Amino acid sequence: MSRLQPRYNKEEFAQRGDEIYEHYIRPQLQAEDEGKFVLIDIETGDYEMDVDEIVASDRLLVRNPDAQVLLVRVGSRYARRFGMFHASGAYTSSLSVVSGMTLISGRGA
């Protein structure tokens, strides 16, 4: 299986994904969707949602193996939290891996 190559810089990737999530997906969410993973193809707007991000990813990639995928967790700023935490609870870095794509974020709390 070949590794997907990003076609957008980080800023454009995030902007496109955030726009799709906020305008088209978030308004359709229900309370029971809290904590589920949403995987969005930022080029087509196609998405999958599941409690298991691998299951959602597999379903999305079956339809479009070349998808540019953004991972979002409903109700959370982070899909997964790994990295450094300060005693104050402030978060300093994160690492997410989805279908061979590594997304790194360094937002503070």
Report on this structure.
This protein has a 3-stranded antiparallel sheet, with helices on both faces. It has a two-stranded antiparallel ribbon with strand order 4-5. Residues 91-109 have low confidence and may be disordered. The protein has helices at 10-25, 53-63; strands at 37-41, 47-50, 69-73, 94-98, 101-105. The chain has 109 residues and is α+β, with helices and mostly antiparallel strands.
Low-confidence stretches: 91-109
**Spatial gap, N to C terminus:** 37 Å
In DSSP terms, counting alpha (H) and pi (I) runs of 4 or more, how many helices? Answer: 2
The proportion of residues in beta strands is 15-25%
Major β-sheet strand ordering? 2-1-3
Q: Which geometry do the CA atoms define? A: globular
Mean pLDDT: 79
User: How large is the radius of gyration?
Assistant: 14 Å
Describe the sheet with the most strands. 3 strands, antiparallel
Order of helices and strands: HEEHEEE
Number of strands: 5
Tell me the structural class.
alpha+beta
Please bin the fraction of helical residues. Answer: 10-25%
Secondary-structure map with pairings?
Blueprint lengths: L9 H16 L11 E5 L5 E4 L2 H11 L5 E5 L20 E5 L2 E5 L4
Name the features.
alpha+beta; 5 strands; disordered C terminus; 2 helices; 25% helix; 109 residues; two-stranded antiparallel ribbon
In a few lines, what is going on in this structure?
The chain has helices at 10-25, 53-63; strands at 37-41, 47-50, 69-73, 94-98, 101-105.
